[in-house]
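ok trying this again, last paste got cut off
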Amino acid sequence: MTAWLLSLALSLPFLGGAEEYQVLVALGCSAPRHVQNGYREMLAHEVLPRLMEKVVTTQVRLTLAPISGRSYTAPARVLETPNPLSTPRFQLEEAKKAFQKEVLKAFDELRKRTAAECSRGTEIIGALKAAGERARKPGRILVLAHGFEQSELMNLYDYRLKLEKREVRQGLLQRVKARLGLPNLEDQEVCIAGITAGDDNNANARLTTSIKTFWEELIQASRGRLVGYGTTPRVCPFL
């Protein structure tokens, strides 16, 4: 009987604790204002509605953190939906509306703070490392960024980098290990959305394809799994 009850508990999402989601988004000087507006629209119309479909049976814990020139030490906001097992249905509906408003409010507050600091660069790897340290259980990480790491570690926007060569990508991974340490993404599914070719003709198809390969290799080396990569969160299977 005890084994049967344990099996039942594991099969019911609301008995297994909150499902963890992290959204890392390029803000401040790491993305133009109109691009940040696009990320906010994605959050409001593509990400949050899908997450809200889950809260009838599952408690959702969402961490929102900026990608900036100082991603590793950037502040993060954590928001949770109520436990559906102990919350009346009508209260859940109200909580869903309030949750979405709070997430967008947190986005605006983080954007304002990150813009005021204006640390130049786009530390996607630093943001992933911080996300890995925050994770306490299997979870999902959505990255809303253009995909071009621009930091002391590397500048993926440099078309002269020859990123299509495996030895170049492996050299960059070794640099990350030596200077920062790889993120710990064990049991984390990662989806990178908001991908663009940049605003420079040098960011050609060969470079952008090689960047995807680089992120696949970095996330795999970090014991995570890249499950989606594209221009919109619709490519993310966990949404």
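PB: full thing came through this time. Residues 16-235 form a domain with the Rossmann fold fold (CATH 3.40.50).
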